[in-house]
Amino acid sequence: MRRSNTQSLGDIMKEYIKDNRIERKLKEVDVVQSWENLLGKTIAHYTRNIYIRKKILFVEISSSVVKNELFMMREEIRRKINEKAGAEIVKTIIFK
User: Which CATH number belongs to the domain containing residue 78 in this structure?
Assistant: First the structure.
């Protein structure tokens, strides 16, 4: 017997995420985890550390040549990241 106030698990999870305001953080984690898919294995190989804080993406790169190339492409990278997230997650990218 089904009760009239039942909800699907997906709806409950969406409501929980919205109520606890963790949607943005989940998108940030998704962006960090998809770095290799967005930029490729070669770039990911030279990436040591990547994190987002206050809409700033910090990326630690082990090669100065790769860092320079990424610096030149940072606006395109920012656009790709925000497009994948479906919202403006990153305003600025800093390569270290």
Answer: 3.30.300
